[in-house]
Design brief:
- The chain has 2 helices and 10 strands.
- It is mainly beta.
- The protein has one domain: Sandwich (Jelly Rolls), CATH 2.60.120.
- The strands form 2 sheets. Strands 1-8-5-10-3-2 form a 6-stranded antiparallel sheet. Strands 4-9-6-7 form a 4-stranded antiparallel sheet, with no helix packed on it.
Length: 126
């Protein structure tokens, strides 16, 4: 499963992803925007964790894996990056105001769109 949409449409995916309500609540309160880099738990639901990271985009990016029975919801808080499957079959430009939900698999994030830029993003694990 891959969902790529704007943050304003996040609520429309609640029927498919029940813990998405916790992501919406955290983003509405701007908590990840204020957090420093690190791993955090959702105060209302300990099954939902999130990782805030800052990184410099590059041509190689950073590989990451979504484990079985989890969904990763990526949101770029500052800047713009490319997120893709490892084989580059599916490629998404993730800028501020958009999100990408990914099910089990291996992916690459933090790939530069043009020149390397510093980004801040959050990955929710629901």
């Amino acid at each position: 499963m891959i969902i790529f949409d704007t943050l304003s449409e996040l609520e429309s995916y609640l029927p498919a992803l029940k813990n998405l309500i916790n992501v919406i609540t955290l983003l509405d309160r701007s908590i990840p925007y204020r957090d420093k880099a690190g791993v955090y738990s959702c105060p209302e639901n300990k099954d939902v964790t999130y990782t805030v990271e800052t990184a410099l985009t590059s041509s190689k990016g950073i590989e990451f894996t979504v484990p079985k029975d989890k969904v990763a919801v990526l949101v770029t808080l500052e800047g713009e990056q490319i997120v893709s499957t490892l084989d580059h079959e599916k490629v998404f430009i993730l800028s501020e105001g958009r999100f990408l939900a990914l099910s089990e698999g291996s992916y690459r994030r933090c790939v530069s769109v043009n020149l390397p830029v510093e980004i801040k993003d959050v990955t929710f694990h629901i």
